[in-house]
Amino acid sequence: MSATSSLVPIADGSVTSPQGFTAGAAAAGLKTGGALDVALLVSDSSCAAAGVFTRNAVRAAPVLYDQDLLGERPGRIRAVAMNARVANACTGADGLAAARAMAQAAEQAAGLPPRTALVLSTGVIGVPLPVEQVGEGLRQAAARLSAAGGAEAARAIMTTDTRPKHCAVRIESPAGPITVGGIAKGAGMIHPDMATLLGVLTTDAHLEPATLAPLLRRVADHTFNAISVDGDTSTNDTVLFLANGASGVEPGRDGATAKLFEEAVHHVARTLALAIVRDGEGATKFVEIQVVGAPTEAAAREVGRAIARSALVKTALYGGDPNWGRVLAAAGAAGVALEPERLALLVAREDGDWLALAEGGATASPEPARARAIFEQNAIRLRLDLGLGRAEAMVWTCDLSPDYVQINAEYTS
Amino acid sequence: MSATSSLVPIADGSVTSPQGFTAGAAAAGLKTGGALDVALLVSDSSCAAAGVFTRNAVRAAPVLYDQDLLGERPGRIRAVAMNARVANACTGADGLAAARAMAQAAEQAAGLPPRTALVLSTGVIGVPLPVEQVGEGLRQAAARLSAAGGAEAARAIMTTDTRPKHCAVRIESPAGPITVGGIAKGAGMIHPDMATLLGVLTTDAHLEPATLAPLLRRVADHTFNAISVDGDTSTNDTVLFLANGASGVEPGRDGATAKLFEEAVHHVARTLALAIVRDGEGATKFVEIQVVGAPTEAAAREVGRAIARSALVKTALYGGDPNWGRVLAAAGAAGVALEPERLALLVAREDGDWLALAEGGATASPEPARARAIFEQNAIRLRLDLGLGRAEAMVWTCDLSPDYVQINAEYTS
Fold this sequence. Notes:
Two copies of one chain form a homodimer. By secondary structure, chain A is an alpha+beta fold. The first copy, chain A, folds into two domains: about 5-280, L-amino peptidase D-ALA esterase/amidase (4-Layer Sandwich); about 285-410, Roll (Ubiquitin-like (UB roll)), CATH 3.10.20. Helices cover about 30% and strands about 25% of the residues of chain A. Chain A has eleven helices and 15 strands. In chain A, strand 11 (about 345-350) and strand 12 form a beta hairpin. The first copy, chain A, is globular and about 65 Å long. Chains A and B meet through helix 2, helix 8, helix 9, strand 13 and helix 11 of A and helix 2, helix 8, helix 9, strand 13 and helix 11 of B.
């Protein structure tokens, strides 16, 4: 857990809270009703940048474009151009040309050199990106760039999200203050065609790309990659991290600052990731799954993810059913070697203590009414002890409700 | 596909259609309302026997018992004792003792030597098996053993199945007729706590255990293992195959008979597997997924299963939404190396011809109304061509409806 006491949350913080970043948004007519649907984030100076991307074999054009650009110029990024409503995925060579055109429109609109803008798209798969419309939106967004624009950008990338997601924190290092901010939109199991998780993190700290990339990977594994994913990994999932150095502080200079900085990044990423889970359409419950006593952290995470994506577990949670057998069965199907007679499953009571549901792989015979009352809460914390080692992992998810099915069954084209 | 012309279906066929098998069932009071809940299958002579079992790390006591017995005496099996309503899973050492007591009760009731009866249980996890009740039920079932009892046994093992599942076929070999029969109950994604697939196949052909086991594995991979599994692999999944040799015919004697015999077993297993998919509670559609052009059959199967377990694909199918992007995205997440620009997705039209939805990984722009009319049918056939090789696989599934969630959210203990 983060030593959050050293982190100062910034009210209404976002990607523009760190020094030297501005953002703007516009309504390009992709969404109906004049809603914001295009956004532009710009840094005053070149950024070190890194990204984590979908592992889906079918990657959308903006993912391919960004991976290529970050491979070539990870120290020269100035902007991120974003749009909602059209994912520019499964669009072939035309789609890649459209992603390039979108980046160029952003660079021209903001007066930036070529090949300095990354792109993010989310929305329906298989529909061509309306390049002219998006380009016009980016020109309008560029005219509105401001240091208060991050929250607006968070609103523009919403699809079926019901709330924009943004936050920022400041830390005081011996060499001066550093700020880390971020925006994100909903993901995974929760949101239909627009099932994409998009996130942008920014900081005014100074870091090299070679330091930034592994840091982002570590943080994403414990935050964005630890929220419910159901196998429906999106073609567009992307989290970008831009560091412009405007604060003049280099966290890499001393170990304590480096640690504090990583905690700040972790805090922002975790806040955004949990906001995505809480905003699941159709979701009625927030569920934390702790897997402890694992031989390795990877094993703990696999087991946690298997539980989080189990339809039987998620429907039981929706029904407030303390059906612990489903949790053990889901864990057993994770592909991790388990010893059933060592398994213990606990659930957090209202007072924070733990109630054992199963011990030694068999029922711990709690009072059914007691367990049921706990499972009827809006937030549920489960702890599964594998009894095999000392590694652990945390995964967050939501329940599966009939509303989820109804939302996803609707005709979307 | 099977050369079904040589197979003669037997009306109302089941595990007791092959010579030398009898079965009986009883109401032991595990289910309410006096419904059949215990069954016993007996062979007049020793059987070669084989089983395929759940790959879940948390295996139920009857699975552990059967694996042990089949390892020790694969040529000496005489009976299968079955019960519904209590899975005897996550029950620890007591559960294993209960499985042993259940087998012994069956052996004593049917006058068989010790260690000749296999056991199958299905139902709620984590509840002790009521051994006395099950034993009394087995004694009643033994008193009712008859060559017409297979259908009754199929009814006794139903949990939330709405129909019993049983069938049999006869083949004429140069050395005489052979019969293959089977019973099964529902599975997987479809059925909540009682999410177990149980199947029993019988034949009066003569085979050695060493031949029977790999044959069952091959057949199961293309039938029971090819129907929708959502990661919620049950703790109890089991398919048993008993061959008592009563026909005096040895299919292994000539290649043509061996091939015809395997087709017969495949036909029975496929008929039962598809009956399970069609009987999915909450399911409104039957979906066949053909994956062709794969580098290996394993790769084809992985891709097919990834599509079949995708909640986004299944909800789109429920909604009659020709949302092909979700199918490509699910395929991309299967963990198989794909080349997106080679992907083609087709759907079978009402007249049996194919309509291309996507080609080269991008939209094939069919008329939306045309595609929608096809997706509104009760049976949908999808064909995904990976464009990478000549291997293929077939997977069957059903859609995901709000009823599924409601059924699974109900309190079950």
